[in-house]
Amino acid sequence: MSQLPYRPETGCAATALLRGDNLMATAPPARSWLLIECREPWPRQALTALGEYTERVRAACAEIGCRPALIRRYGRSDPTVPRRWGLVDSRPGRESARWGELRSYADLLDVLAGELPGELSDEPAYLICTHGRHDPCCAVQGRPVAATLATAYPERTWECSHVGGDRFAPNLVVLPHGLYYGHFPVLGALDLATRYDKGLVVPEYFRGRGSFSPPVQAAQHFARAAGASYEVNQLNPLAVKAIEPNRWDVTLAGGYAVQVSARLMTIDAALTCGSASPGQARHFELERLVAP
């Protein structure tokens, strides 16, 4: 049987939005990021674009808990402008970004080893997933967002390869904090950027912070829903204790003690455009919250 042609209105992002899939605590783990400017068409498995350096870079990233991603500017690139690499630390209290010129993919091993320090930057970076070969919804939903942000913030904006959660497209990651957003309107991306400049998260589109575990992301969500601060640097985790296989006690800065539990839900639908139905997703629930 031949595969039906892709249609945005029946793609994984549109159907997830229609179902009302929960964004809470869906940010994949990413304590740090290696950003690799690649101007050629991206393969489905993005890192294979590095050719002979693919496995060495993948192993070096895995060793230090770093998430690699391909990046490119929206629209046509100026071939006379050198490519760039970025190394971003998203851990709380250590948020930073260093950038340098990417002469060859061999440089990436020196970057990860700390032998190419680059230049420290205090500018945010906006990563918009447009990785169509991984999932067409990412390209269809992400490119209008990339165009909007690139018009307002050309130096901050990058298209990027797969970041996780195709069904939440458009997906935006705001660095250096590693804030994940999804299912927001195109023009809403400008508000997300403005609020970040003010040190705030926007809870209605917030998937979580990748440098925190999913139980912590869920605990922060419930604390904010109970009236806690929307400030990015508030509610950092002080302690996380697994009391059962799917239940955690999370202590957050500011005096919040939150107990959350998780269960797997079966969804009678494909959760990505390339997967089969049904799918499974983890859903967090609040068990107890003690506020200051």
From TrEMBL:
InterPro entries: Aim32/Apd1-like, Thioredoxin-like_sf. CDD domains: TRX_Fd_Sucrase. Pfam families: Suc_Fer-like (PF06999). This is Sucrase ferredoxin. It comes from Kribbella deserti.
